[in-house]
What we know:
Layout: H1 2-25, H2 52-57, H3 71-83, H4 91-110, H5 116-125, H6 131-150, H7 158-171, H8 173-190, H9 200-214
Amino acid sequence: MTIILFIYGACLGSWLTAMADRYATGASPIYPASHCDTCQTPLAYWQMVPVISYLLLRGRCHYCQQRIPPTTLYLEIGAGGLLTMLTSTTVRPLLWLGLWGFAALCDARTQNFPGWVVWLAWPLTVWSLPWPTIILATCLLLGVQLLWQRWPNPLIGDGDLELILAYTLYWGVTATAQWLLVASLAALCRARNYKRLAFLPYLVSSAVAWWLIRK
C-alpha cells in the first residue's frame, strides 16, 4: 500500500507541476497534450512516468536536450512521500497542503495564483471552528481581498496574507509564529531580489516541514 500511495502521490505532484506551468503560460489545462516547453514536441508515454522518466532522461528533453528543471523531480518525490502518510486523520491536512502547494507553484512562476484555491481550501481551514469564528474569519478574508485590489503598493501580497490568516486559524498563534520565522529565514537566505519575492513557496515549504515535525 505504501508503494501504491507513493506512485499516486508522484503522479499527483507531476500533474500539479504541469498545471502550474500551464497557468503561468495561460495555456489550457486540457489541450494540447503534454509536450516539451522548449521544442513543443509531444511527449511519449515513457517520458511522462513520474521520477523514473526524469532519471532515464537524465533531466533533459529527449528531443532538444533542453534541461528539465529539477524542481519537477523534487516535487514528484515529495508529493509521493507525503501521500504515503495518508490516513483517515491526515486527509484534511494533506488536502490543505496540496491546495496551497499548487498556489505556491503558480506563485513561484508568476507571483500570482488562481483565487479559487483560497476558497477551495477555506472549508478545510475552518472545519472544526465555532460558527461565530467562521463568520468573522470569512468576513476578514473578504476584507483582505477587497482591500488589496485597491491598494496600489502593498508591502505583502494578498495571497501571503490569506495563507497567514488560514494557517493561524488552522494551527494557532504559537505555531504560526514558529512557521513564519522559518519561512522568513529561508527567504532571507535564498532570495536575491526582495522587492519581487514570491514568498508563498517559502510559506508552504515551512508549513510542510512543521506538519512533518508535529506528526
